[in-house]
Specification:
Elements (H helix, E strand, L loop, with lengths): L7 H21 L4 H25 L23 H20 L15 H7 L2 H66 L6 H30 L7 H15 L1
Helix pairs in contact: 1-2, 2-3, 5-6, 5-7
């Protein structure tokens, strides 16, 4: 079959036959040195048949090395004459291809300007159109992503502005509460006029809360006059409203 060759359809069928053959031959020739040698010889012949047909279909491939180390074939056990002849033909084919090849094998993992895929793309009109189409898609996606980022940044700035407004409002309410209730806070700590034990406990709890509020108010007052109350936010606003409700009660 190697000398006469085979048609294109038969070569394409080798793509499905090769993995099946290797799987079955591994089981069949396990521990058999001669059988494993036949496996290597047959698998190599299949691969080179595909390579030869590919070179006919794509002449550019002839400028690239085969990518098969024929040195391994020197170690296999081939006692039959037809096997020896096939082995010699396979070795000659690989050497003849590699002697004139100027570029690396398509199986080379290092991709550069000399790689078969790159050279094939450059000389193929269809591949060039595909490359341009992919570039257009990438450009569109980049533009879309840039718009999304711009919108997200604008939303982020809006939230920062809203947070600053809330912080300013909380600071205003805090200063207003402090200025209106400072006298009541001071007098409450001094006057514990309670008649019953329940009143005493309730008054003490309120006075304790108001005493803590006084400390907070003093700090806030200093922050308001110096315009440095950076730690007063929405949480501070809620805390002031809660304290204000306590005083009103």
């Amino acid at each position: 079959m190697w000398t006469t060759g085979c048609d294109e359809e038969a070569v394409l069928e080798l793509r499905n036959l090769m993995p099946c053959y290797l799987q079955q031959s591994d089981l069949l020739y396990s521990g058999d040195a001669e059988g494993q040698s036949r496996q290597v010889l047959t698998a190599t012949a299949m691969a080179l048949l595909v390579d030869r047909e590919a070179c006919r279909e794509f002449p550019l491939l002839q400028e690239h090395r085969v990518g098969i180390d024929v040195g391994m074939l020197c170690r296999i056990l081939v006692p039959l004459p037809q096997q020896k002849k096939l082995l010699a033909e396979l070795e000659e084919y690989v050497w003849s291809r590699d002697r004139v090849a100027l570029f690396p094998s398509p199986t080379d993992v290092n991709l550069d300007q000399d790689s078969f895929s790159v050279r094939f793309q450059k000389q193929s009109a269809d591949m060039e159109l595909l490359r341009l189409r992919l570039l257009d898609m990438c450009g569109f996606n980049q533009q879309k992503k840039a718009q999304e980022v711009e919108k997200a940044l604008a939303r982020h700035q809006t939230l920062l502005d809203e947070a600053a407004q809330e912080e300013e409002e909380a600071r205003r309410l805090q200063c207003q509460f402090f200025s209106r209730n400072w006298a009541a806070l001071a007098s409450c700590r001094l006057n514990l006029n309670c008649e019953t034990e329940m009143d005493i406990m309730s008054c003490k709890s309120q006075c304790l809360a108001l005493a803590q509020a006084t400390i907070i108010m003093k700090r806030s007052w200093n922050g308001c006059t110096a315009q440095t109350a950076q730690d007063v936010g929405i949480g501070g606003r809620l805390r002031i409203v809660g304290l204000r409700l306590q005083v009103l009660r």
